[in-house]
Amino acid sequence: MLSVYATKDHVYTLLLDSVCSSATFGQYVQCACCWAVTHVWITWITVDREGICKCGYPKDKHCEDPIKPEDYVGEQWDRHRHTKEAPTDAFGDISFGGLGQKTGKYVRVSSDTPCEILYQLMTDCWKLRSPNLLISVTGGAKNFNIKPLLKEKFRRGLIKVAQTTGAWILTGGTHTGVMKHVGMAVRDYTLSSGLTEGQIVVIGVAPWGVIHRQEDLINPKGNLPVQYSLDEQGQGLLSCLDINHTHFLLVDDGTRDYGVEIELRARLEKHISQQSLGNRGSGVTIPVVCVVLDGGPGTLNTMYNVMLNHTPCVVLEGSGRMADVIAKVADLPVSEVTLDLIKQLMERFFGQEYKEFTEVKVIEWTKKIQDIIRMSHLLTVFHIDEDKNSDVDVAILQALLKVPKSDEHAARQSLERQLELAVAWNRVDIAESEIFTEEIQWTSCDLHPAMFSALVGDKPEFVRLLLENGVCVGKFLESEDMLCELYAHLPSCFFLRKLAKRVQGGKICRGQEPQPGSTKISLSHVAEEVRHLLGSFTQPLYVPRVCVFSSLFVVVSQVLSKGLVNPSCLDEERTTDKVWDSIRDLFLWAVVQNNPELAEISWEQCRDCIAAALAACKILRKLAQESGEDDSEEAKEMRELASHYEKQAIGVFSECHSWDAQRAQKLLIRVSPSWGRSTCLWLALKAEAKSFIAHSGVQALLTQIWFGELSVDNAPWKVLLCMIFFPLIYTSFLTFSGSSQEPELKPLNCSSRLMSLFTSPQVKFYWNIASYFGFLWLFAVVLMIDFQNYPSWRELLLYVWLTSLVCEELRQFYHDFDGPGFRKKAKMYISDMWNILDVLSIILFIAGLVCRLQASGTVFYVGKVILCIDFIIFCLRLMAIFTISRTLGPKIIILRRMMMDLFFFMFLLSIWVVAYGVAKQGILIHNEERLNWIIRGAVYEPYLIIFGSVPTNIDSEQFTNFTTEITRLRTKGRYYNSRVLICKTHSFSPQRKLFLAIMYKHFKIYTFEEVQDNTDTIWKFQRYELIKEYHSRPALPPPFILLSHLILFIRGVLLRYPPQKHKPFRQELEKTEEEELLSWEAYMKDNYLSSTRQVKSQSMEHRVQDTAEK
């Protein structure tokens, strides 16, 4: 077990690879004094008739294998020569009794242990996060009293600074003096916060030899926690460990002396101070501050040494002795700090202890005090009388932020370091008071490292502070590398997992084997994933420069797939510039990681804020849907954040609409280059933002599009009458929208009036309803009256009519020229249930027509049956027309949801049906072999019983109805028939009642009432698709629509005219007009946010919170 006489390097790296196992602690060695005979080299003294070695331990505490006496004849005892190192036998978990069952970690280490090993132990094995600040508390080792107010401020301030900055607190670790005060502060914090707050890390570096009951800490394997209890009464000259510390380093040099840990503690503090702080290796190291309470000459030496190492010190005035001496002279010039003054102060604060001091020592201490005062930039005194409204935490942080005024360049570097420290500590108050002052001028570039740290470290308050003090997001994200680095530092989230999967998938597709840690996120990966989340209708947000030819190929393939376009359209697509919007990039980065605070700060900076909010809503709902865990906390947070941004979009749009309705409507249909050339209206539709679509301003726009050039004030009966007798449009019977609004731009002559009437989506809808009823009437007539061996003229007209419907479906599939390629269009097309019904009805009609044209009678009749079934589907398709109705539209949604629910109920019902059917069939019929009769007896007849139709073979009360047609297949008699009746009674009497009751309750409560309560919202949302469909339809109804299709074919294919854009749904604005509109939108957003903050500040919850914080 003992690594006797092994070299230090070998001992310390013995088990370095097996981190956190019990054997790992073998590298943290202890020291043991070698026992030898008295007369050789050890001088013994007698205490209570027991020999004590020079090391302080009795003989029975020494090693069992004594070194030969002749090796050390005539030598004085020396720690380095007469002790040896061995693997530690005291490490693991330590459990303290009492309230809360506090537990901690501890290890016994040699005083010569390298600090690299100790730091690795704490970070790798104990799983401590690297600190952002190291607070070394030193002072009186004996118990002392301080003023209650100072005690309270010290405890509260120490915990606050440790909690907010993620600091480590380093003390002596024993339950005495200043260490006891630190432990009590941690205890009070633990009792008040419980498990809701993070743990405060308090590391005690104590000498092993003076620990009371050290035998309880012996734990060679470290697999079980040791029990340690506080025993102040029986400790004597030894010291107990403080039970409120969380970790202990017990330093052993082979002796039982105090102070053996000082050297190791100083080296450990220096090593920690050399570790880097931050995310990108900015050169800023972990700061260290020394806090001094009370103390004697040893404390003065500690202060002097740490300040020589450029470590700032905070002295608490009023804590006693040396701390008060230094506090009294800290503000004096060095010339006034004389020996007499120091003698007076020491006599005053040390009392009787001063009489033990020699003149030489006092002179030495005076010189050190003078040197300490010369380093005034490293000395901070907390005056309790002057700082009544502040705690010690402010003094500690201010001590680290003092800037020497001698060198301007050094002062600037120090300021930048202090800003990094303030960000790491997340102390906005310190940054506002000490860093962002009127005397210091900051440029945007100076703040970029702090901005990166604040973003990656999830410090939204600091991000807001930096933006307020001059950070330009455009300059910060000017390069693609910075944005890629932000995505590379995304916290663990669902989007990061998807992004990593996409990066690895790309490497696999290129034939490369992905290596762990070798994947690098590029903007092309982000663009692909974001486009997937937003929808294929958008263009990529990021097009890297290296992908210019690739993107050109995509554009060419998309344009050629559309077919009906002019080659000049290619030039238009190719010259489209991608917008690099830094605010959008920052907002998108915050949204995909589901960070509400950072996203809100970024959104407040966005100009195109409505589109940004709706895009965030779409992305978050898509992420929540793809997460696959609807009940997971992450998915719930995403849905909540999506709802929040839908409300934000509604709030800003309401503000805009209340000021200027026409401008607000222009915001809805404006093409947004920042969001993939989509529109707010389209984003809201794809995000299923029903509340936004149901807004009165959005509905007003849809209503205007629905009426077209006709006035929205026209009654429906007037429009119908003009459709039948169109000369009425030349009178004042029907009003047009252009007649009152823009008469100078739009003269209403005869042709324009006629064109306005028949191109109105409302009129098209009425004509198509009449046409569809005519089609169904003709279809019914052919099926019931005129279905001959050879098609009649009515049937031929039906074929032509159906051909027009097929052509219209093809036109609808290809008509969106701004949309994606063929595959994406097909996927979007079949995602609509009504389109599926259209395709199904057309396929069935073609199948029925093929069978109907056959000469065989059987096949001919099959064709008619197929056409009859097809007629049912065409009738069901009629429901889609009535979605525009405010009354019938929601009812159709209710019916669709009921059908979905009914499927699951039928599945549950089938279990009872099959269970009873198989039992009944097995009881009544013996070895039935006919498959159709098996299905009839096991499934069909039990299904009829649910509705009260009982088969005749079991309905007789005398049980005399038996099957006798086949002697081999006969029933089992009256006894077995009665068993079937009992089985039927027990199975289906309660089943039918239960089934009907459950269906009624579910449909009434969960389906009908849910939709009925949102009738208005659902109707307003679903009418958009119908309005868009009929706006793009040709004016002529089927079958005359074939003429329109022929004209479109000639224009698009033969003449190669460019396609017509959908101006009511997409509008390209001039650059000047767009800038004015976005500036106005940003102004409205500021008004909305101001009113929202005002309402929030006046709420009772906010007032209670403010009162609690004060």
Structure in words:
Residues 105-331 form the TRPM SLOG domain. The chain crosses the membrane at residues 765-785, 835-855, 861-882, 902-919. It is found in: Membrane. Residues 434-695 form the TRPM-like domain. By secondary structure, the chain is an alpha/beta fold. Among the domains are: 29-86, no CATH class; 94-325, Rossmann fold, CATH 3.40.50.450; 410-471, no CATH class; 491-543 and 578-691, no CATH class; 763-884; 891-1017, no CATH class. It is built from 45 helices and 14 strands.
CATH architecture designation of the domain at 94-325? 3-Layer(aba) Sandwich
Low-confidence stretches: 1-24, 34-49, 507-518, 545-577, 739-746, 955-976
Shape, please? elongated
CATH topology of the domain at 94-325: Rossmann fold
| Radius of gyration from the alpha-carbon trace, in angstroms | 43 Å
Distance between the ends: 59 Å
Helix fraction by DSSP (H/I, runs of at least 4):
55-70%
| Count of helical regions | 45
Taking the sheet with the most strands, its summary is: 10 strands, mixed
| Percentage of residues in DSSP E strands | 5-15%
Mean pLDDT: 79
Global structural class: alpha/beta
Count of DSSP E strands? Answer: 14
Give the neighbour order of strands across the main sheet: 10-5-6-11-9-8-7-12-13-14
The CATH top-level class label of the domain at 94-325: Alpha Beta
Keywords: Ion channel, Ion transport, Membrane, Transmembrane, Transmembrane helix, Transport
Domain Ion transport: 766-1016
Protein name: Transient receptor potential cation channel, subfamily M, member 2
Membrane topology: Multi-pass membrane protein
